[in-house]
Amino acid sequence: MMWTSDDGSAPPPAPITRANWIWSPMSAGSRRSGAPPPRRGASGLRGSSVLIVIQNMSFTFDTRMQNVVRTLVAHGHRVRVICPRYRGDPLRAERFGAEVHYYPVRFASGGVRAQLWEYATALASIAALMARLQAQERIAVIHLCNPPDILFPIALPFKALGARVIFDMHDLCPELGAARFGGRSWLRAVLHACEWASIRVADHVLAASPSGVARALARGRKPDEVTLVRNGLAAPLAPGAAAPPPRGRRTRIGYVGNINPQDGVAMLVEAAAHMVHVLGRDDVEVLCVGDGSALSAVRRLASDRRLGDSFVFTGRLPHDKAMALLADCDVCALPDGKNPFTDTCVMVKALEYAALGKAFACFDLRETRAVCAGAALVADGESPAALARALLALVDDPELRREREQAARALAPSLLWAASEPALLAAYARLAP
What is the pTM (predicted TM-score) of this model? Predict the structure, then answer.
């Protein structure tokens, strides 16, 4: 997913509402080039300066925050984004009407110490960029994204200067940390403390799942200070123009997403090994689209299991190419293991599978079953063999697969970002005094 400019133009601004009330007076010389002057209206001020801060992934691939940016820009906000730089990203780019600033980072691939070093260097880079952007134009709203829950300290000086803070809780980080690093007591205490501070520092909390809403309320926020803003797709998905590789007679199982230790791709490799070596299914191949800190380890595992061309890694691809390849797959896999983290969120890949009308196999994940009911076939246990059985049930039973595909297509309209957009705008409106 490497590109330097988007090919669409932002829609015209909507009528002035309380959602864009904030503006800081400045001289014409200090205003960012191209930023519109403030316009007073009956219900507020148009053109607030919003800074979105992301630590865990490049904005180039962050579909949730791309949707947020589109919405804010369309409603008259001036948006800047700070995020890590992936290979091929520029230092600065215009994306969806926002000014995106990328900082260099080396993502940790080891344990807790490596992760802490990544966070320390990231915070230093983000703080320097925030200071520079504040000097160019005063920041009115800081929109902090997790994971991780470490960004609250750098928001404090700007909050003291009058900026409002939104905490966008994509995931429950204590549960995510336990899934990745185990349940060490000291780490659990640190993660809970950081989550508490992130929620308490914010003027408003956005949550991507009902579990996130419940957590924010449990941390002492009032109901009108928390808003559920689910993930959604920008537009109905359709196969792209990219031509898939030759397939021969093989059945293809697709995976798209991150490849980090907690994402279950190692489980998918073991399931593929079970299909190929135990069940003798050399007519099946797995296509794995994505990248992450566990990619090298998962590649080695696939090699150790002698999977050869039965398990194909493409690396990270532009979204349209990834979706084109996924659309060519027969069924899809969501191999995330069941734990308190995966039970409380819906992976974006599950939404993409359903939006493409694909049946997929998964483990018994509570929130995924609630949102993607009917499209997913739940494995009868949590093991590579159970995942392999569920995937092959979809492959070998055309009627079962058609039923799940029909359920997925029926879900598609409800998975669009348009259903979440009003909640985001209402949250911004609540920041008004």
Answer: 0.79
